[in-house]
């Protein structure tokens, strides 16, 4: 979806006032989607965006990342993935028919007569009598449960995730309804978390004149260090990064200088304001250009013919080590 | 919602401003001023700046010329003291008989300018922005931070003076004055050859206005600040649009001779303040000099970082205390310095922690590979090492290589880059080990570096907590509503040595100086120094 189309379909509600999505924001939504969508096996896409101001830029780019992630989603929470988890690993599950939530540890896998089973010891349950019970799930009935490694969202959070899922679904077109509740984050945003969260306060989006959804709900955010359910994870620009993501958004010069060589994501979008585009960053971009391959037919999506003045983008495709 | 209360509207306004930005140069014909520019330049070329007396003449020549070019005061305003300046200059130039014809010409021009009193830049300003037309139309910024130290041609108290002309006029002396402000127009009253490049870039490229107006007497040449553009990528570069201003700007030929005095004054100003060497020697380290609003100055290691407070002095939580690279500090920033040390807060706290854990040798062991890198750089340039690492699939900048040798950066942050660096050093014969030993050496060094980083993080976090606590106990609500003064002193509880100075930056020397490590962190009292005006 091109920025011009996004501008028509998305409205911004800022403290009660309604605005069409401006060119700059639409371009960033498009860019975030492009960076998330183009996952090329064995190669990494490193994209720089230099802007007159980077406030809100990571938020709009991550919205694009979510939309592209929702489209790319395939229901892969499957038996083989679960089967590979080590014994003792904590897991969460919900019975689809009655909606009951459980938490427990994997205690074994077994098989007989061509059937395979997973054995989990219940450590968290609504009923005290269920605690300590070892439950056996037949592979054939695995899909009757929704197993996750992360704690599923609380009821209140589930409601906001459902609302976000519907709004994102409206924007993305056909989206598997399981996507929003699947414990897989589409992107990591390395940013000053307080500043990021305060910048999106009071901001809501409406898709195709639908009900407004606050940006913080829409982005389904969670801390990377926490284990709560989230579709985008936030990490401050310090320390080491855990997890693996299709896209990392490095928001600002500090995020770039600390995590220039981030390995936690295949693709990286670096967002800088003009004063942060200093010689060291420029040198890195030049180095990347020197080893960059052609961005050609493998790439999905039509690229806009022009971007609004003020936005500068450069993308480099390099070998994944 | 309005621009001040809405982030969304503010950012949208910034992009709109960038889209519409226009630059207009207004050229004023005033032959007497042109004579001052030309004669100053010729006199300057005659002077031997190595001689202190002639260096002083050069300084006064620049101050007098700048008093005319920088100002929007009438030329007969007593603040400018043009005739007094000329008289003193004449007195100093008596010992240079060859200069007599030029001095006479200069005297004639200065006398004529002072007698006319008419400053065409001021007249333009009064006519273009009369008070009556400007109500509710937004602020008009006028750049007053025209040089390091006090800008010639401007009274100390600028706000009141400008308000008399037009209440919408706001002096821009540093980045602090740009905080949260948008301008209907920003006026540059001269060619800004001595303005901080960072401040000038902010005015041009941060989307603060749609209209930049440069006032120039004939003989003045203005060039917009240069900006780095991303290397073209073959995908997006053809699809990007520059703003209108960037399309309009045409490089004009510059008369280097007329710029020589302006260029010299920048170097001479800093030299007179800090006298640091401008080329490297074995026992000297690269440094940057910072001048503060309270009239003090300090050398800090160029590769280091410094803790800064928000520019408006408002602290809400610990994340407001940011570490900024020394080379990125600019006018108006508020920095926190530990007096008597290298200026770095984290180093000291790390030492405390390292000492506490009886683990003083960790640093030496974790970074012993730096000697091998140092040895490699005797025969290879930074660029060559960067290129070799790039070939090994680890793209890094040449500047990073330089930083890794220094004491302020531990080394590569990325494990694969670190490993490739060690293998490269081994391949070049700078680390001599069998392949098995090398693998184990690399593993251990990486682990030690990570341990050291964790310690630094712990130290950083400790110092931030202590400082935040100390700031709040000292200033209470003051830091919420008001602003910090140019200099504050904070003591950290339980650490008798830790006297922290909170200082607002007046200017930063943009050229690297080389000094002995013992000069780092020593605060120079420059109050009364004639170069500060």
Largest interface: A-B, 73 and 63 residues
* Mass-distribution shape of chain A: globular
Q: Total helix count of chain B?
A: 19
Radius of gyration of CA atoms of chain B, rounded to a whole number: 26 Å
What is the strand tally of chain B?
14
Q: Which stretches of chain A are low in confidence, meaning pLDDT under 50 for 5 or more residues running? A: none
How many strands, which pairing sense, and closed or not: the largest β-sheet of chain A?
7 strands, mixed
Q: How many DSSP helices of chain A?
A: 9
Described by the principal axes of the CA atoms, the overall outline of chain B is globular
Structural class of chain B: alpha/beta
Strand order of the largest sheet of chain A: 12-13-9-14-15-3-16
Oligomer class: heterodimer
Biggest sheet details of chain B: 9 strands, antiparallel
Total E-strand runs of chain A: 16
- Residue-averaged pLDDT of chain A: 86
Distance between the termini of chain A: 31 Å
Radius of gyration of chain A: 21 Å
Task: Quote the average pLDDT of chain B.
Answer: 83
Task: Count up the domains of chain A.
Answer: 2
* pLDDT < 50 runs, ≥5 residues of chain B: none
